[in-house]
Amino acid sequence: MAKNWKPEDKSIDLATQEMIRKAENDGVETVWDRLEEQQPQCGYGQLGICCRNCLSGPCRIDPFGEGPQKGVCGATADTIVARNLARMIAAGAAAHSDHGRHVVIAMHEYLEGKANYPIKDEKKLIDVAKKLGIEVENRKIEDIAKDVVNVAFGDFSKQDESLIRFADSYASEKRKEVWKKAGVAPRNIDREIVEIMHRTHIGVDHEPLSLIAQGIRAALGDGWGGSLIATEFQDILFGTPRIGKSEANLGVLDEKKVNIVLHGHEPVLSEKIVDAAMDPELIEYAKSKGAEGINVVGMCCTGLEILMRRNVPIAGNWLQQELAIVTGAVEAMVVDVQCIMPSLVDVARCYHTKIIDTSPIATFPGAIHIKFYEDRADEIAKEIVKTAIDNFPNRVKEKVRIPKHKSVAIGGFSVEAILELLGGSLAPLEEAIKSGKIRGVAGIVGCNNPKIKHNYNHVTIVNELIKNDVLVIGTGCWATACAEYGIFLPEYAENAGEGLKSVCKSLNIPPALNMGSCVDCSRMLVLADMIARDLGVDISDLPLVGSATEPMTEKAVSIGTYFVASGIYTHLGAVPPILGSKEVVSILTEKAFDVVGGAFFVEPDPVKAAKVMIEYIEEKRKALGI
Ligand code: BF8
How far apart are the first and last CA of the chain? Predict the structure, then answer.
């Protein structure tokens, strides 16, 4: 069937457009085709006013006020929308936090002598331990590590009402006070998620405000708990990122080599595969099959994890995962958890690519299952690489076309790397903010969404912000978009306003900084918190804004919520399913300001959104007297 859209309508990226055309020629269905097939999408779902939480439903509320205004149990639109939103937050917080748990377990297994995950960054371990109030003087690294693991396990399991220890140790007193007053301080990462499921069960909590407050509590348990734990433990095990150079876009695939794409989120596996692919025996084995070597590249957040720490090139962000296979040059796409389209298996059937699922909690019908267990990590990683090599002779030459497009990108901007760059303290950055060379900071996160032109919002909003001397930091698929577009090059600062440009030039950095994967949004929180402390104010007083410009996942909903609950005015580039309740909209966009010092605003046009963000930054500067 002829499409009624063109690749240029769907992405600003030339490699993506080229591969959409190839997919069409090869008879391969992609995410954009399926979105088209779904039209028109359910209006009740878009407004958030359908409820499937019990078997007397499904119920829906008539948004025009003519039909039913209550579900069978009597739930109103306000209750239903708030319940649905809380469940989205719960799912997002669960995904991040379970990821965090897996990393803690890997470290625990190592300390128990059951897995090979030696501690790479002892300094980071000591820094984290000190922050948590753990004694470090004259103690063995392993003993300190055990205590840190126990604190993390405690945050997943403790049953008292106190704030989780990671949040308690990392957040400023001012911010904690806000949370305590609002009754949203997370007590246990898992409990807050479970409590959302309890409250949203039929017949429990029906008050939009208290449902959203619990959503906030779970989201804070993610940002200042699960995600923060993921970041900190990954840095300890695999090394804290340092500034380094890599490449991005589909052009990083190599026609002459065995291409392995690592896709998903958890570096516990991908780190091992990067190691295995450097094994001389396996490289020789690849050569014996006619390849020149092994080319490991990333996709989505796992890709960002290994880019940040190992400078491994990244092939693409969320909307490019199917297209990597469409190149016909991928021997294996290795997937773990989150943001992995089940359609990959169907796309792979048109080529020779093997989809290898690895997580015991994520099985893909039609994929090869090589499940990953920490205690046999090295062995399994080698088996996966070997499976990819064995597939190289099956490549069909006529089907191979790798786009030329790729860009060099500087990454690795952990908080530690930024501190190092600035000579040990944030003072130079804070001075630049005070003097007005940098007007403010925007933290951008997340996703692609096929309803939004791929990468358009990401790139446009950055251009608008930097032009107005706003330094941009960010993570996730936003970071990959910037990397692909050349934004992560120091010379891109030529597009910035005079003030920001001068700062970038003196430090030789790009005007937008890659802080990592989505769990690494915690790095942005830590940075914001440090600046607030240094200036003696709360995060909500800073000239700081947040944005999810192309939001798609429930994780992005959780991230947005903990940004807001951390005191940050946060933009959403797509409307979440809440418009069916005026009350919920008013809580999230207005009332939240009074309670947590931040709120959401929705603006699909990135130019207009940037304008709102800049105005907000200027207001905050004025209030601070800078
Ligand atoms: O955690 S940015 S589409 S890949 S959710 Fe997913 Fe969104 Fe991409 Fe990573 Ni984050």
Answer: 59
Fold of 414-624: Rossmann fold (3.40.50)
Phi, psi angles (nearest 5°) of residue 470: -100, 120
Per-residue pLDDT, 1: 53
The confidence score (pLDDT) of residue 4 equals 84
Nearest-atom number in ligand 1 for the CA of 446 is 2
**392 pocket-lining for ligand 1 (C-beta < 6 Å):** no
Cis? peptide before 511, omega within 30° of 0: no
The reported pLDDT for the residue numbered 267 is: 94
Q: From the CA of 548, how far away is ligand 1's center (Å)?
A: 11
Backbone angles phi, psi at 570, to 5 degrees: -125, 130
Ligand 1 pocket check for 476: Cβ under 6 Å: yes
Measured CA distances, 368 to 17, 287, 334, 574 (Å)? 29, 24, 10, 35
Q: Which of 155, 103, 109, 110 is closest to 132 using CA atoms?
A: 155
**510-526 mean pLDDT:** 98
Averaged pLDDT, 127-138: 98
For ligand 1, atom 4: residue with the closest CA: 300
- 479: tokens are 């970071």
| CATH 3.30.1330.90 fits domain 77-238 | no
Domain boundaries for CATH 1.20.1270.30 within the chain: 77-238
Does pLDDT of 601 surpass 60?
yes
Of all protein residues, whose CA lies closest to atom 1 belonging to ligand 1?
518
Q: For residue 220, how many other CB atoms are within 10 A of its CB?
A: 29
Q: How far does the centroid of ligand 1 lie from the alpha carbon of residue 154, in Å?
A: 27
Atom 3 of ligand 1: nearest residue by CA position: 447
Q: How far is the CA of 301 from the centre of ligand 1 (A)?
A: 6
CA–CA dist 556, 558 (Å, integer): 5
pLDDT at 176 exceeding the cut of 80: yes
Q: Which protein residue has the closest C-alpha to ligand 1 atom 9?
A: 301
Pocket lining: 339 vs ligand 1, CB cutoff 6 Å: yes
Cis peptide leading into residue 58 (ω within 30°): yes
- Rounded to whole angstroms, how far apart are CA atoms 355 and 367? 5
**Segment (H or E) for 301:** helix 300-310
DSSP reduced 3-state for 70: strand
Mutate to test the pocket of ligand 1, among 338, 344, 475 (most ligand atoms within 8 A of CB): 338
**Residue 269, beta-bridge partner list:** none
pTM check: above 0.90 = yes
Q: Chain-wide mean pLDDT for the chain?
A: 97
Given the candidates 3.40.1050.10, 3.40.50.2030, 2.60.200.20, 1.20.1250.20, the CATH classification of the domain at 250-399 is 3.40.50.2030
Is residue 92 within 6 Å of ligand 1 at its C-beta?
A: no
> Average pLDDT in the 120-149 region?
98
Between the CA of 271 and the centroid of ligand 1 the distance, in Å, is 19
